[in-house]
Design a protein that fits this description.
Helix content is about 65%, strand content about 0%. It is an all-alpha fold. Strands 1-2 form a two-stranded antiparallel sheet. Helix 4 (about 85-120) runs parallel beside helix 7 (about 155-175) and helix 5 (about 125-145) runs antiparallel to helix 7 (about 155-175). It is globular, with a radius of gyration of 23 Å.
């Protein structure tokens, strides 16, 4: 699925490059920063939602084994190595590694079935369910002390991971191919009378203003949310776990942020763009797919 998205991006870029248009300004850091700051609202909301997803996931992932050792098994990593508390902590960490194996298998299985699920359910529904499942999974795991319940809830972590690795990029590809229009009267001579897929103007930008966009830049903006989330987790999780006194604070944080992302994905993320009936008059718009 991601490969198809990248292939569509290459096709879009080749269509722009093959149009004979030459860039008036060379690529520079100033133009790149301008493209980042002037990103479309739909892309900005998608990046925020993607950031919330990685923020909740990384908060859980980095502290899960510690959570199993300290909270579920009631161990103490600071206890003497020959004490029962330290042995309990080691046993909890070992069990947490098995939980991560369950998460990995669930992510692989859900990734394999996600394309079929997209045919039956909307992207909004799949996005909402992934965030909701992860929020419930981390929240219930924090409240429960049963080992089998905590391990079974690891399957919900794989659902969010597979979703974060596919659906945002699929949505971005939809943004670039969301407007299908047909040539009006007197237009399109010599062309086949079939709908043309045009890139929305807010994702094309203006070459004169130095805001010409490309799918590669937008994919990079979306992908960097993963690293921004890691930075924030590294800065915030240490003081948070110290204030709470155990790794359960990181799990509560992951659950709350996931529920926030669940609401944001339902209320703010754009899933459809309105279609138009006439070809836009501006010359800045280029066809995403070949016309013939």
């Amino acid at each position: 699925q991601v490969a198809n998205i990248l292939l569509n991006g290459v096709k879009y870029e080749s269509e722009l490059n093959g149009s004979g248009e030459t860039s008036e300004q060379p690529l520079s850091m100033k133009l790149l920063c301008s493209t980042v700051c002037q990103m479309p609202k739909a892309l900005r909301n998608l990046c925020i939602n993607h950031f919330l997803g990685w923020l909740s996931f990384e908060g859980m992932l980095l502290f899960y084994t510690d959570f199993m050792g300290e909270v579920v098994f009631q161990g103490n990593p600071k206890a003497p190595h020959n004490s029962d508390e330290y042995q309990k902590y080691n046993a909890g960490v070992t069990m947490g590694c098995w939980g991560m194996c369950i998460y990995a298998f669930s992510a692989a299985f859900y990734s394999a079935t996600l394309e079929k699920l997209e045919e039956r359910f909307s992207t909004r529904t799949l996005y909402f369910v992934a965030y909701l499942a992860f929020g419930l999974g981390t929240g219930l795991a924090t409240l429960s002390r049963n080992i089998y319940v905590v391990l079974s809830l690891c399957a919900t972590y794989g659902i969010l991971f597979a979703t974060l690795c596919t659906l945002p990029y699929s949505l971005l590809c939809d943004y670039y191919q969301s407007r299908e229009v047909s040539p009006g009267p007197g237009r399109g001579e010599g062309l086949l009378r079939r709908p043309l897929t045009l890139c929305p103007p807010q994702f094309v930008g203006s070459q004169a203003e130095g805001t010409r966009r490309g799918m590669g830049v937008d994919i990079s903006l979306l992908s960097c949310q993963y690293f921004l989330a890691q930075i924030l987790v590294a800065l915030a999780m240490g003081p948070l776990t110290a204030a709470v006194g155990s790794a359960s604070g990181a799990m509560y944080f992951a659950s709350l942020v996931s529920f926030l992302g669940c609401l944001f994905s339902s209320l703010c993320v754009t899933y459809e763009s309105p279609a138009t009936e006439e070809l836009p008059p501006t010359e800045e718009q280029r066809p995403l797919l070949p016309r013939a």
